[in-house]
Amino acid sequence: MQFTVLTLFPELFAPFWDHSIIGRAIEKGLISAAAVNIRNYAAGRHQVTDDRPYGGGCGMVMKPEPLAAAIRAAKRQCPAAETVLLSPQGRVFDQSLAGALARGEGLILVCGRYEGIDERIGSLVDVEVSIGDYVLTGGELAAMVVIDAVTRLIPGALGGADSAENDSFVAHRLEHAQYTRPPVFEDQPVPEVLLSGDHGAIDRWRRESALIRTLLKRPDLLRQQPPAPEELRVLKRWCAEVQDLFTTEDLPGAGPPSGGEPGR
Ligand code: SAM
Questions:
Q1: Other CB atoms closer than 10 Å to residue 172's CB: what's the count?
Q2: Which of 14, 93, 116, 163 lies 20 to 30 Å (CA to CA) from residue 192?
């Protein structure tokens, strides 16, 4: 997978390429990554990349010519790459879009600044992607978010062979609760089953933990993919246990059950 970021601030990416999963994926040759300065494609002595908006108003708009030249040069390097425009007006990025992008050969990520880019660049863009309903100063952080999420899905990029399979949002479920040493932290013990060495029981506990957390934190995901019969049995059993825990008088002041993890 070849990532080419088109940006006015390529230096922001140096530490990003050097560390953690991205750094290791580059080292292993699983991805290649470059941040290209859009200014290199701007004409004239001053290499101007922005101009005032037609119709007036505040702020500046990124000019189309340098952007178009930069996108076309990146396309020549990797003709199969998809061109992604980072924009608060795009499709909201999620795990399924990350999965779809990870199946491609390359991504050209176009980072806007100022008031955004000239609308006519749209004809060179395959997909417009937003990382959420808020406005950032530039597309660079959004590009890093996309690159990180996509790289995690490239086979071999994570340490464990199946580490990404259990991640949250895969199959519309959150990941199970995680614990590490010490076995007791501020009076909170690790669920006993995780110390048991019984891998079947641990797997069951994790599946149940993932399901119950999804119900408590993101019930919308359960609507996107309704529970399978086995999952429904788990949820019904858990709901019955919760009901048994509280009398009706307890409920108003009781708050949610603690974490909702099985076996706690
Ligand atoms: N005036 C634009 C608007 O209201 O739609 C916002 C421009 S923003 C200040 C500058 C650039 O930051 C955008 O062109 C885009 O590349 C990037 N950006 C801002 N918010 C973003 C988001 N939520 N997701 C992806 N990119 C974003």
A1: 17
A2: 163
Q: What atom in ligand 1 is closest to the CA of residue 134?
A: 23
Q: Residue 61 and residue 248: Cα distance in Å, rounded?
A: 60
Q: What fold does the segment set 2-152 form as a domain? A: Alpha/beta knot (3.40.1280)
Residue 205 C-alpha to ligand 1 middle, in angstroms? 42
CATH class of 184-250: mainly alpha
- Determine whether the shortest distance from the Cβ of 143 to ligand 1 is under 6 A: no
pLDDT in tens, 97-134: 999 999 999 999 999 999 999 999 999 999 999 999 99
Nearest atom, ligand 1, residue 129 CA: 25
User: Is 184-250 in the same CATH topology as 2-152?
Assistant: no
pLDDT, tens digit, for every residue of 136-194? 999 999 999 999 999 999 999 998 655 787 789 988 999 999 999 999 999 999 999 99
Residue minimizing CA distance to atom 19 of ligand 1: 136
Q: Which atom of ligand 1 is nearest to the CA of 85?
A: 16
Say what percent of the chain tops pLDDT 90: 87
Which residue's alpha carbon is nearest to atom 17 within ligand 1? 139
Longest dimension (CA), the chain: 77
pTM of the model: 0.91
The residue extents of the domains of the chain are 2-152, 184-250
Distance between CA atoms of residues 9 and 114, nearest Å: 13
Q: Which of 156, 145, 146 is nearest to 25 (CA)?
A: 156
